[in-house]
Amino acid sequence: MPILNAFYAQSGGVTSVINASACGVIETARKHPDRIGNVYAGRNGIIGALTEELIDTGAEPAEAIAALRSTPAGAFGSCRYKLKSLEENRREYERLIEVFKAHGIGYFFYNGGGDSADTCFKVSQLSQSLGYPLQAIHVPKTIDNDLPLTDCCPGFGSVAKYVAVSTLEASFDVRSMAATSTKVFVLEVMGRHAGWIAAAGGLVADHGIPVVVLFPEIEFDKARFLARVDELVKQHGYCSVVVSEGCHYPDGTFLAEQGTRDAFGHAQLGGAAPVVAQMVKEALGHKFHWAVADYLQRAARHIASATDVKQAYELGQRAVELALEGRNAVMPTIERTSDAPYAYRIGSAPLDAVANVEKPMPRDFISADGWGITDKCRRYLLPLIEGEDYPAYRNGLPVYATLRNVAVPRKLPAFELA
Amino acid sequence: MPILNAFYAQSGGVTSVINASACGVIETARKHPDRIGNVYAGRNGIIGALTEELIDTGAEPAEAIAALRSTPAGAFGSCRYKLKSLEENRREYERLIEVFKAHGIGYFFYNGGGDSADTCFKVSQLSQSLGYPLQAIHVPKTIDNDLPLTDCCPGFGSVAKYVAVSTLEASFDVRSMAATSTKVFVLEVMGRHAGWIAAAGGLVADHGIPVVVLFPEIEFDKARFLARVDELVKQHGYCSVVVSEGCHYPDGTFLAEQGTRDAFGHAQLGGAAPVVAQMVKEALGHKFHWAVADYLQRAARHIASATDVKQAYELGQRAVELALEGRNAVMPTIERTSDAPYAYRIGSAPLDAVANVEKPMPRDFISADGWGITDKCRRYLLPLIEGEDYPAYRNGLPVYATLRNVAVPRKLPAFELA
């Protein structure tokens, strides 16, 4: 067998565990020097392949690569860049082949979500379409948890844990303050198309917290919502609201777009949380507080789920094994075999069945009244937030790795992105 | 010596470690059954004393009290309620004495910030002013870190740690995304009058992060700010901004008030973060993300500073010891004796020198250009965020205590709050 180099890139919005997958890919590749030469990482994702900005991960000592396991975000840089079809932009595919040829690359590992699976699938067809032998394996990653054919996606469990912990903590706070001050706390979380992340906020109901979850899947009904908040505050003295950024009215208008204007008339300055909070204030008169977690939720490696970190690593590891087994155009997956005790095995799925397919949250994960989660959802979520995987700390802050990211010398002329 | 009961109450905005002080008070009181009978907690702070809503902490097993050490927010409820002067509202003071008499209370422990120190001082004068023998000890607590005569205030160190960790993590995220997407991340933090909390965001500069801190102490200059962001993005490809909610223009207008209007013309729907982010977008065209941490920062017991937890407990403990030593109208304090290695001793300060005095952040804690912190500030902050004190977890979430909060039977007629 010839020794070939591997290309690895991170794509789309980063997560607190995508580097754990990178760690799994690189450490596993290093165990097979008879088959895999070096792992070249794309600087800023697939763009690095197109512009021949390759990072020599071989220049990093084993400890630096090991430290990726507990470092959030994308160590090599990510990008939002979707390859067009071969028919639409043949030039890009030909450039990829030039770069891969110049650097002896025979393995392609792409770490991303739905759009990236599409890119990876297109690259996996290069052998067939342009005669360049390449094995392309997709490593799943998305906090949105919306990839099909896998029980869950690395990145999601840690966001879910962050949201559940934060909602619990802030709810304890508002409960303390409710007698004379704040009675309603609103937390805005990510998830424009599906309520997977918001659902995690619903877990605090098990801890006696009155909580209203606003899902993108449930059309927002202001009157019903206000009646529910009123009911909970009358009953408990306070309540928490977890609102998905994707929550919208029946006509599709997002709550975040509702009428917020700055002095210049620009829309959408604020998020959904302040809109919801203001609504409660106007209708019910309650003092409120609101928070928007934004990047904090997906970068919060300090409170990552141990399950999530482990799976992120294992899927990176398995991606390399699949390549060594001669596979192409596949993605390793999580196949759950039991909820409690939680058990799963690593499977694989063909990329053409993954690319451009979004897995919605099942309606039966949302309670009949639309304000919370069902037992079925709870059984799904709990194993994914299980366990803590703390980074090391120095001087009060986590020790997160910043790699040297040494450039591989260029061999080709420059390439302009379209 | 007679055995007297103690009253303990939580006041003002709660923190992630105020219950650690409660734990220190109650556990220490329990060690002196020859002097202290029961500890009665005020339900919702001082209001519980006025309305005779007392909680029997004696009904809680030792494990429940111990669990307070790792539980955020106020286990007995807090309140925002400031006693007027004796001249203005003699009725309230007479009621307090009635309640204290009825329940054999001779010790008064009040756990709060500046306003609460004022209330505690007024109560400490009851012996002199109305002839009721009582020892009142203030237990400091405020995330604002603005009490005088103590090196720091319990609650602050944990918020500082949360802000520093969150800024570091989100900065890693935006650094990953900057090539094709988000270039500026803005985090809004608490601190209306002083920049102690915002300063903690400045700590990430030590980790190579380009960060701009917007302090309440430095009048906001839009042109200078935008030039600074532009410079950092050109140099590093991205930057983070930590903005205090108290950041304001030279005329005193808060950034958060700048022109944000909802469809009904209501002001101040959003916070400072979206205003700053929008400013950057308009002037420099950079894609941005913003977060508002709000309650999450002060409730985040999961990432509390071990130093802070320890000091919160010790100050509660010392408050009881001061009472047993016969002291009145004092507050235990932290006296720092060395920055590195960090060392401190517990002292005490007279309440009349604490009440209604705000400790500002020294100007020489802020860098000359106004965008960051100095070495002096760094030396001050680092020990306060040192160490992790993780709560236990079950089913993926922290095990936080909810006490039974058994009511002490009433002995007096009802009392209407003014």
Automatic annotation (TrEMBL), chains A, B:
Reactions it catalyzes: beta-D-fructose 6-phosphate + diphosphate = beta-D-fructose 1,6-bisphosphate + phosphate + H(+)
Main subcellular location of this protein, as a coarse class: cytoplasm
Entry cofactors: Mg(2+)
Subcellular compartments: Cytoplasm
A GO term from the CC aspect: cytoplasm
Annotated InterPro entries: ATP_PFK, PFKA, Phosphofructokinase_dom, PKF_sf, PPi-PFK
GO terms, molecular function: 6-phosphofructokinase activity; diphosphate-fructose-6-phosphate 1-phosphotransferase activity; metal ion binding
Domain Phosphofructokinase: 9-322
EC number, as in UniProt: 2.7.1.90
Sorted UniProt keywords: Cytoplasm, Glycolysis, Kinase, Magnesium, Metal-binding, Transferase
Binding site for diphosphate: 13
Pathway noted in the entry: Carbohydrate degradation; glycolysis; D-glyceraldehyde 3-phosphate and glycerone phosphate from D-glucose: step 3/4
Entry keyword annotation includes rRNA-binding: no
GO biological-process terms attached to the record: fructose 6-phosphate metabolic process
Pfam family, one: PFK
This protein's record includes keyword Kinase: yes
Function summary: Catalyzes the phosphorylation of D-fructose 6-phosphate, the first committing step of glycolysis. Uses inorganic phosphate (PPi) as phosphoryl donor instead of ATP like common ATP-dependent phosphofructokinases (ATP-PFKs), which renders the reaction reversible, and can thus function both in glycolysis and gluconeogenesis. Consistently, PPi-PFK can replace the enzymes of both the forward (ATP-PFK) and reverse (fructose-bisphosphatase (FBPase)) reactions.
Family, per entry: Belongs to the phosphofructokinase type A (PFKA) family. PPi-dependent PFK group II subfamily. Clade 'B2' sub-subfamily.
Annotated protein name in UniProt: Pyrophosphate--fructose 6-phosphate 1-phosphotransferase
